[in-house]
Amino acid sequence: MTAFQSVAVIGAGAWGTALATVAARAGRSVTLWARNAEHATRIASTRDNPRLPGVRIAPEIVVTSDLAVAAHAEMLLIATPAQHLRGAVNMLASHITTPVPIIACAKGIEHGTHKFMTDVIAEAAPHAQPAILSGPSFADDVARGLPTAVTLAAKDEVLASGLVQALGSPTFRPYHSTDIRGVEIGGAAKNVLAIAVGIAVGRKLGASAQAALTTRGFAELTRLGRALGARSETLAGLSGLGDLILTCASPQSRNFALGLALGRGEQPSAGKLAEGEFTAPVLIELAASQNIEMPVSEAVASILSGRSTIDAAISGLLTRPFKAEE
Ligand SMILES: NC(=O)C1=CN([C@@H]2O[C@H](COP(=O)(O)OP(=O)(O)OC[C@H]3O[C@@H](n4cnc5c(N)ncnc54)[C@H](OP(=O)(O)O)[C@@H]3O)[C@@H](O)[C@H]2O)C=CC1
Ligand SMILES: O=C(CO)COP(=O)(O)O
Question: What is the per-residue pLDDT across 132-148, written as a single tens digit (0 to 9) for each?
Answer without folding.
Answer: 999 999 999 999 999 99
